[in-house]
Amino acid sequence: MTVQTRAPLVPFLPDSAPFSPEQRAWLNGFFAGVFSADAPPGATALSAADSAAFLPAPAEEDDAPWHDAAMPIDERMKLAEGKPLARRMMAAMAQQDCGQCGYLCDTYSKAIASGAEPKLNLCAPGGKETVRMLKQLAAELDGAPAPAAEAAAAPKTAPAQGAPGTRENPADVTFLGRFRLNGEGSEKETWHVDFDLEGSGLDYAVGDSFGLFPVNDPDLVAQVLAALHAPADFPIGDSTLEDVLTRDVCLKSPPDTLFTLISYLTGGTRRATAKALAAGGDPDGDAALLDVLAALEKFPGIRPDPEAVIECLEPLQPRLYSISSSPMATPGKLSLTVDTVRYDHAGRTRHGVCSTFLAGRVA
Ligand SMILES: Cc1cc2nc3c(=O)[nH]c(=O)nc-3n(C[C@H](O)[C@H](O)[C@H](O)COP(=O)(O)OP(=O)(O)OC[C@H]3O[C@@H](n4cnc5c(N)ncnc54)[C@H](O)[C@@H]3O)c2cc1C
Fold first, then answer.
1. How far is the CA of 145 from the centre of ligand 1 (A)?
2. ipTM summary value
3. N- to C-terminal Cα distance for the chain?
4. Cα-to-centroid distance, 101 and ligand 1 (Å)
5. Mean pLDDT of all residues belonging to the chain
6. What's the rounded Cα separation, in Å, for the pair 74 and 160?
7. Is the confidence at residue 5, as pLDDT, over 50?
8. Looking at ligand 1, which atom is closest to the CA of residue 354?
9. Which CATH code, of 3.30.365.10, 1.20.990.10, 1.20.120.1200, 3.20.20.80, is assigned to 218-312?
10. 189 lines ligand 1 (CB under 6 A)
11. Residue 258 Cα to ligand 1 middle (Å)
């Protein structure tokens, strides 16, 4: 005669439980160990890494309820709470899938989480709040290998160096000319701009976008040099300060690190203001409209080391434009329709970097 004993009931957390897959795996392993009749004394649950090794890779998550460019970042991050790192990084992006970073929001976040993309500052429309959130999330990566499922889902490498016309390997095209599309006296300033693609190795199809690396306005560069009290030929690596300010760095929104630098050079209330700005605060209600020049002029008299300032600034990013020509109609040529960005703030006209480059400076 045998006695049938009832198998012990082992609690099991369903997928809908409010835990990350790693936490769920650890807890289910723990429950299995503790509630199993055969568990040897002293049995312990597997580590998260060991449990993860036994888990099948989670199915690709298609749902991204935060993928709404109109949703504020704190709401997006709340919706992504408890999700794997790459998903939370995606929620930190601007959700525009604009391609300016060279990826989509989803693939950029996977590339960062897998370690394939080290740059955290490529999401131009996300601005400083995206950079701040990505830096915070990236702290989870430090020293820890990327979770296997995330690494597998990310692109294997950055775009191939060999292919011309990528962000990493831009091609040279020839500027042919431009003409203004608006009538005399119009408030709008829209330009038709033509390029010759011959010899560039570039090709396109209708509906593609064209990415351009602009250069900064020389007048703005001159004003920044004056605010820094630094000579144009101050050496920065193999280049000069003027050249780096013109071609390499973004003179728009000042990064938090610039205010941190300024906080070391000031005292009293000025230091408190710089510290607050570095922490994302807005002590004087003007943070949204400070560009690099306005940030330097807000703290008159400071003489930061020019190289330290350059190290604080973000790289100048390419801008995308929808191609408004067809290769069938104008083979080898490419046209853009560009709306010029200009607006006044605090007694100074601000010029959009790339649109005014195309509207006037490129020749
Ligand atoms: C896929 C894609 C396709 C695009 N296609 C086109 C196109 O065909 N044609 C086109 O013209 N643009 C297009 N754009 C937009 C283009 O990429 C640039 O963003 C645009 O030209 C502005 O760039 P900029 O460098 O001149 O301005 P920036 O120097 O980047 O300045 C723009 C920023 O200035 C600020 N700003 C602007 N106006 C004001 C204001 N009144 N008050 C306060 N702040 C303000 C805002 O922060 C804004 O983000 C496209 C963008 C994408 C993502």
1. 37
2. 0.98
3. 97
4. 15
5. 84
6. 35
7. no
8. 25
9. 1.20.990.10
10. no
11. 24
Rounded to 10 degrees, what is the CA torsion of 107, 108, 111, 115? -160
Note whether 321 and 212 are within 8 A (CB).
yes
Residue given tokens 């119009």 in the structure block: 186
Reported as a single tens digit per residue, the pLDDT across 91-136 is 999 999 988 888 899 999 999 999 989 889 889 889 889 999 999 9
Q: Give the per-residue pLDDT at 200.
A: 93
Q: How far apart are CA 109 and CA 88, in angstroms?
A: 8
CATH code of the domain occupying 174-214+318-361: 2.40.30.10
Distance 319 CA to ligand 1 centre (A): 8
pLDDT at 159 over 50: no
Q: Where are the domains of the chain?
A: 21-54, 73-153, 174-214+318-361, 218-312
- Residue 152 — pLDDT band, cuts 50, 70, 90? very low
Is the minimum distance from the CB of 351 to ligand 1 under 6 angstroms?
no
Strands 174-180 and 235-236: unpaired
The residue contributing the CA closest to ligand 1 atom 51 is: 320
Instruction: Mention every residue, 6+ apart, whose C-beta is less than 8 A from residue 228.
Output: 241, 296, 303, 304, 306, 309
Vertex 101 angle, CA 152 and 261, to 5°: 110
Q: What is the pLDDT of residue 184?
A: 86
Per residue in 194-219, pLDDT (tens digit) is 999 999 999 999 999 999 999 999 99
For residues 263 and 278, give the distance between their C-alpha atoms in angstroms, rounded to a whole number: 8
List the beta bridge partners of residue 322. 209
DSSP symbol at 90: H
b/e 22-61 (16+ beta carbons within 10 angstroms → b): bebbbbbbbbbbeeeeeeeeeeebbebeebbeeeeeeeee
